[in-house]
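Researcher: I've got a protein sequence and the SMILES for zinc ion. Could you write out the 3D structure of the bound complex as structure tokens? I'd like something to compare against our soaking experiments later this week.
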Amino acid sequence: MNYFFVFQNETYKWEHRGGYLWAPQYGRIGQRVSHYETMKSVKQGDIIIHSLKKKIVAISRAKKDVYAAKKPVEIKNPWQDQGWRVDVDYITFAKTIETSDYKDELLRLRPKTNAPFNRKGHGNPGYLFLANKEMYDFLLHKILGVQTDDSEKQKIINLLNLCNDLGQEQIDLQIQMDFEEVKATQLTQQQLARHAKHSRPPKTQKTESTVYYRSPYIRELVKTFAEGKCQLCKLNAPFYDKDHKPYLEEHHIKYLSDGGSDTMDNVVAICPNCHRKIHILEDEEDRMILFQKAEENQKRYERLLRYAEGIEESSCGAMTERI
Ligand SMILES: [Zn+2]
Ligand SMILES: [Zn+2]
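Model: Sure. Here is the predicted complex with zinc ion in place.
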């Protein structure tokens, strides 16, 4: 199965309505054009990512191999009547994302040749380009993250499952983490504490699994506890992230891969420098300091949780009294 990326702009309306992709066989002066030539390699079952005005608006799958076809009457292409056509099923999204928000990632993920984005991360002028599974997965996860409607989410999850070699459990876990990730960054400290209490992997995790569940609630909460300072060297975070929060990394003192738990008493927030150091040196003294920190985090978390749950209860109580 191959992946493609199409820029449709003015023709999207017609191509979407008609369920196809169409491109002329040659350019204006009869020359070969690489972004039209790409059409010739589309086969049944291939996946196409659709971009309209810098937004990812749909995903489609080729219903059969590409074939030579005359220009559909509704397409106002001025110079060529002979073209290539691929019949596809479009799947559109209720909410979408702008590719310009992910320039760096798309640059990193783009294929080596015939890529839809140039070295500056801008879309290349043209019609059909090559994509790959990594780009597809990345974009769909981001699109999944902005959906609010459950049926929309399910639709995208199905699209993600379409072509994954990870087991079903692994996919579910990855998706759960993607969901929570977006949510966690928008919660208050008290809300995080309440979520952290309940968040755990959906099922008992098998030891051979390659994806380890990490609660984003715990991670975000520990970061708020760190108050912008590394919990090992105590220095200020080296920079602010895109959300203007001090940049710290989460570290599991006993590694998850060694059976460490994703719980407050095993997680600290540290600067990237210390994080590297710990993984390279595995210094016992550092470990002790971090365990102490984690213990403080745990205590603070318990206090916060009692407070948060207290508020919740008293507000429930107030409600029932009124009734
Ligand atoms: Zn540090
Ligand atoms: Zn770590």
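Model: Residues 230, 232-233, 235, 270-271, 273-274 surround zinc ion (ligand 1) (CB under 6 Å). The mean pLDDT is 86.
Researcher: Great, I'll pass this along to the crystallography team.
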